[in-house]
């Protein structure tokens, strides 16, 4: 009996061990070993559900033999049977059809990717991290089909130019509308420079009217939606990400050496029939020439660039209170002396479930941008003689290095000036969301409120050491105050196979702007400079203030039947303060879209090759009011004039108002196909679109005798057509090695279809019917006239060494009538290819970008040597009777026709390469870390191009133009960084 009792007890104990739940814990990671927070872990037997914390860790009650399910959006759900172990670590693989399961932001809400009927593209998350960029748009260049991002300058802190599906407007703003966490960033004074890329959780770009019409007047040029990171339930997670590295000029257009400079001078005198008096042009160059010393002025004006960024965040919370707090410090020391950019950014996101039906939250951030610093002048550095004198005997900069030549001053004089440029963005957004219970389940009301205060300060003082013998001070202060209030009502309902989503909106926006300027000239000394403008002998001051307002109503209905047939109807009504009294300030912008999930049809069930196939069609209308305020009002400016020996203030013609101004309207048609084949190892989308814009807000030229030179009017039409392709392929998938490719391609054809209604072109503005908005209109160069060639029948004024142009009208001479369109400035097509390789914990990403079909005037060729007075790049060259160049003119050639040297600006660039290593769990356990990734990244590594100059993408300005001081070529960057999270 005793023995039987022992067996009974033992058997009971064994039974208890199998039936009494034990606590199972572990970590959920992705294929790279990075923890995944928010994974749903479900015990399929007991229906118990938990969610992984910020470090991917979870705990759940489960007995041996029970099954645990691990699911997360974008990853393949797996099931794990519990054995005897107490720790179960799992890795989730990205789902081949993850694009269908992803929840994407579509404006005032979210949708499953499979339900989207408009053109919405999600930016690959890999582009949002591990790249040395100060502005998130720099990471998108060439990486998103239909989004043309152009880095025209690498000036630290400068924003790139962005166009979505081409340029619709001529004079009005064509940039996309940016919304962060549901509240607009555009029109508040701020920019994407104010957003820390490390804070971004997702980024969507809305491209067609169905997607953008919900933003009405703000959606005509595309919409960029940014969602920042939020907190998750679980213990606090501390993350650090940072990088540091070096910057250099990607390509240096090297000036001539001493010997080459001397030869150029001798050749110039020979070609202009002058007698050479000395080996150098100026007396001030003789001491260095006689001493045999030269100065590398580009080297003197540049330096080793440096870049570092440090970001620290903490997130966590309970099921009812979640928080995310981050701080970022970025410091960039430019490659041209004096240029720098500092950014300090703080963010606090909070979500609180006050009750079961009420949730409130905030999104607060503060960003301080500092662009201070007197700057060297790179254009003058390339102009200096290598025998020029850099310093005076007392160690100060020589004002005229090539004395007595006074056309060029020392390129380093700007370092002796005081320059202040700072902005601060203080942004506070809050929301309250009510979910209605019972019979009203599915009904939600959300109130969004946002306020932005954006102060800006600029100041400068130029004194004696910078060649201003009187001293000039200027102080500028401006501030922008903006608010946005949105009332959003949504209702979601399922009736058998029918699904309905309705969204209604009423919103109001207001922006107030004011500025004051103070200046003075004539200071006794330079000691106080900008700190005492009142000490100046001649005082100036000015001020300005304006207000902008927008009221909007919107409704959107989404309907789905059995996840097969989709319909989206949207209408928005906007009222803008920029329009006049003779017309309505309101515009209505409707759109409609249909979608057909073909792969969900019964006849597709046995088609194993195709996993996803969806057809999308949309048509709609959007508006554009992107002109300055008060253009409907006729205003006068002030002017001082002497009267009886006294300076008297009078008025002069300012802006001629047009009280009939109304909306610029764009009608858009879009057709798209989303596809996935071979178990979604090949997936992507193909889209074609047509945008027709009418009633352009165009500045019409007026006879100056009227007192006004121009006036805004609704005239002209443009058209954009394009094709876009996005393709993702999994080329090889193995246990240890994977290879993936992402390819994007976009083509855009832009043209002006109407201007003033008279069927005529506008030669003065270079606007031509049937041609792109921005073209190069110039003479067609066919070579260089050589010695002995007969010029009488084509260009009687030409001489050997003169540029040879085509006589297009055949009148035997070169006149303005021989000009023609040589090409378009915008690319005809763009593309990018990213290859990513994974081997165990090592990842390598290589991104190549291209832009083709661009033609630009080349200022590096245009400025020549300015009648022998400057140095020129050795790469450019010049004609001589001996070398018989067919591409460059003689040094004696005067460009009286103003030829711009149109050049092919197409290029292909190794844009960025990133190599990273993700540490495995065993190492993390030893280090007591949640995750650790180290990486090295290079950007703008090499450019393949026919362009002769600094860079084909760079806007390099000639002396005297608006922004000629800030000439700053494209830079190459190398950084090392790490991302780490603590347990």
TrEMBL record:
One of its GO terms (cellular component) is cell outer membrane. It is found in: Cell outer membrane. The keyword Disulfide bond does not apply. Residues 1-17 form the signal peptide. It holds the Pfam family CarbopepD_reg_2. Its main location: membrane. The keyword Heme does not apply. Residues 113-223 form the TonB-dependent receptor plug domain. Keywords: Cell outer membrane, Membrane, Receptor, Signal, Transmembrane, Transmembrane beta strand, Transport. GO terms for molecular function: siderophore uptake transmembrane transporter activity. It is a multi-pass membrane protein. Gene3D superfamilies: Carboxypeptidase-like, regulatory domain, TonB-dependent receptor, beta-barrel domain, TonB-dependent receptor, plug domain. InterPro entries: Beta-barrel_TonB_sf (IPR036942), CarboxyPept-like_regulatory (IPR008969), Plug_dom (IPR012910), Plug_dom_sf (IPR037066), TonB-dep_OMP_SusC/RagA (IPR023996), TonB-dep_OMP_SusC/RagA_CS (IPR023997), TonB-dep_rcpt-like (IPR039426). GO terms for biological process: siderophore transmembrane transport. Belongs to the TonB-dependent receptor family. This is TonB-dependent receptor. It comes from Pedobacter roseus. The lineage of its organism: Bacteria, Pseudomonadati, Bacteroidota, Sphingobacteriia, Sphingobacteriales.
